[in-house]
Design a protein that fits this description.
single chain, disordered N terminus, mainly alpha, 311 residues, 3 strands, three-stranded mixed sheet, globular, 10 helices
Amino acid sequence: MNEENYSVAYEFVFLGISRSWAMQLFLLIFSFVFYVTIVLGNFLIMFTVIFDPHLHSPMYLLLSNLSFIDLCLSSVCVPKMIYDLFFEHKTISFQGCITQICFIHVFGGSEMVLLISMAFDRYVAICTPLHYVTIMNSRLCIFLILGSWVIGLIYSVAQLAFVVNLPFCGPNEIDSFYCDLSCFIRLACADYKLEFMVTGNSGFISIGTLFLPIISYTHILVTVQKHCSNVLSRAFSTLSAHITVVVLFFGPCIFFYVWPFPKIPVDKFFSVFNFVITPVLNPSVYTFRIKEMKVSMKRLISQLGSSRKNL
């Protein structure tokens, strides 16, 4: 097809998750309740870490940044999905689609790096506790947080570099509730090898990134196993929250890339899981598994209640 015969797609149409009105009503209520929980839960973690001096340590600063990323990642797609559930015709502009893809990869890439940083923090705290304050100082903590955002931005730019100038001359329907990169590429008048290259690149990065936290946590457990069982029990209790979050984040991503039955759609389910369920589970996991967080949250809530009574 000649370049002059291309027609420009000014907007894309989302096919959504289901065409059933009963299912859409359920998704509307489900998504709204979970999104409110996401906002309240992650804001509570961020405010608790910021206003409680006892939590001004690298572990909790990294946790606060994780809550912020989860909140942002969910906010990229979920409000738009809730809004679209009110209408039969669900559309997004070309610029809006590119912007959504950009932010999804910025926040997703940042979270990958941040989870590695949190694994490194636990490694230093458990395996070299006497040198923890020296190694995990405020300068390194800030460097890890800023580094996660910079790498996330680079990852997003690298992905968009392949697709931002693609021509679109065919259908403009995206079989999803958000601008998925692979679905976006399928609509372009270009070679489909690009889809496999970009998807393979994302899958390789996700799987490769997962091995770093796994290696760190494995080394920690092997190291503390040489000590008494009480040390191992405390270490595993501390690590269990981190391991759970890593599995929740990387599990759906990797399963999506290695799913051997492409004709059986699982991407919508995992997308809902990543954008709606995981950002709710993360604050829940850290709230119920880390004693210091529970104590600090109760203290913050009681202080807010006392201030309200005084007013």
